[in-house]
Amino acid sequence: MEVNNQIHPSEQQMKALIAPGHDKPIYMVNLLKFRDKAEYPDGRETDLTGARAFSIYGEAVARILMGLGGGPMFSANVEGLWLGEVEELWDAIVIAMYPNRKAMYDMLASPEYQEIAIHRTAGLAGQLNIETTNPVGLWLIQQGSS
């Protein structure tokens, strides 16, 4: 299996996001790799780490997502790999719930998102997004979602 971290989705991936399909909640698993030092595309000077720049984005995007009926469900730092091999581990994992694919697309297209996305770009060296559905688990039962 080849792993290719990206910062932005391809045109084909964006088309798939808005294609007709299921209209149920999605739980996006985000595998995040941060830059050591944030690199803003507008060239601004900063002392922020990539992780800190991404956290500025994360706090703001959580508010946008909650306004669409979704929200962050889980976030954790990656400490190690116990099965399999990859050249380089991700730094963090975040699971975000979107009511449906359209809500995710609407978030990405919103002016509020466009304004804060610069912090995401500055902080990330790359990421993988894995769309999942039909979650089960104790954490969902405790939230009253299952």
Word description of this protein:
This protein is an alpha+beta fold and 146 residues long. It has a single domain, classed as 2-Layer Sandwich (Alpha-Beta Plaits), CATH 3.30.70.100. 37% of the residues lie in helices and 22% in strands. It has five helices and four strands. It has helices at residues 11-18, 50-67, 101-109, 111-123, 138-143; strands at residues 26-34, 71-77, 92-98, 124-132. Strands 2-3-1-4 form a four-stranded antiparallel beta sheet.
Q: What are the key terms here?
A:
4 strands; globular; about 150 residues; about 35% helix; alpha+beta; Alpha-Beta Plaits; 4-stranded antiparallel beta sheet
Overview in brief:
It contains five helices and four strands. It is an alpha+beta fold and 146 residues long.
The sequence of SSEs as H and E is: HEHEEHHEH
- CATH topology assignment: Alpha-Beta Plaits
Q: Can you summarize the main beta sheet?
A: 4 strands, antiparallel
Total number of β-strand segments? 4
In terms of structural class, how would the helical and strand content be classed?
alpha+beta
CATH architectural type: 2-Layer Sandwich
How much beta, percentage-wise? 15-25%
Number of helices: 5
Strand order of the largest sheet: 2-3-1-4
Shape: globular
Q: What topology does this entry show?
A:
Blueprint: H1 11-18, E1 26-34, H2 50-67, E2 71-77, E3 92-98, H3 101-109, H4 111-123, E4 124-132, H5 138-143
Antiparallel strand pairs: 1-3, 1-4, 2-3
Helix pairs in contact: 2-4
